[in-house]
Amino acid sequence: MTDLALSRKISILAYLADHEPTLAELSDHFTTSPSKMRADLSEVFTTEYAAHGGFETPVDVEIPDNPRGKVILRENQTGLLPSLTLAEVISLLALIDDMYGSVDTTTRTHLAKLRERIAQAASEAGFGQALWPAPTVNLEDTTAGLVAEAIAERACIEISYLKAGADLHVHSEDVVIAPVSLTTGSHPLLIAAKDSQLRTYRLDRITDVKILDQHYTRDLGRNIQAQYKADAEFSGRTVRIVCTPQARWVAETIPVESATEESGMLVIDMTVSSMSWLRTLLIRIGEELVHIEPDTVRDEMVKAAHNYLEVL
């Protein structure tokens, strides 16, 4: 075997099977120099067979003399294709699902097609039951793309944002912010500055985005990023509320993470940043409330209730 790793050979072969890049483009793709890539191509799939005492070259690659020339795969008799273990498939699908909400529409569509191909191949290999359905996403949603564009240009934006007010009803608020970065995950966050102060916004609660001519400084962006990393409590606390189906109005009127039915009960997960707001919500739920998690939040609610009773 030559010095070029087999996995790298397969990667180069797989790329050339679908592309006809220039030598410079191929070098950039594999993060190397044209001269090093030319040497790699001369070795690719040249395998020594000791028993035969010679070499066999099952791949014919046309290698140009200059970086602007095309690299063309003329023949491939290896039958080698990139393959993944089940653990790698699961990790890759999880990564794709994690990115769905925070990429632009074009990238989201490509990710969806890639996920479909990977899942289909895994199912045909007999691993279908180990996979989970693709997340339900709006592939045409342009919000993430507009926000990402504004971040790249350090442009301020005006957004319409859905939030629950003091009366626990959802209303839309128009706000001008400086978008700094996006997180990934099932509910991506837009990290931003409002009046130079750190704010976070759920991307799925933004209903409209308008990019403005106003721009913000690099220093502001760095400061907001530093504040976000340092302020662990800013992201709020995840709370699970278990209640009877009669409390479905909670999931219908308040933006929550998820709402599912389990054993005849309604299970609601949400992120809250104010314990007083949560107490108000629980009081409104009243007798329909069955349980609340985690225990630390439940204990806080119980302690607060006892304090109120002592005052009364």
UniProtKB/TrEMBL annotation:
Pfam families given in the database record: WCX (PF25583), WYL (PF13280)
InterPro entries reported in the protein's UniProt record: CBASS_pafABC_assoc_protein (IPR051534), PafC-like (IPR028349), WCX_dom (IPR057727), WYL_dom (IPR026881)
Domain WCX positions: 238-307
Location of the WYL domain: 146-211
Protein name: Uncharacterized protein
Annotated organism of origin: Trueperella bialowiezensis
Organismal lineage: Bacteria, Bacillati, Actinomycetota, Actinomycetes, Actinomycetales
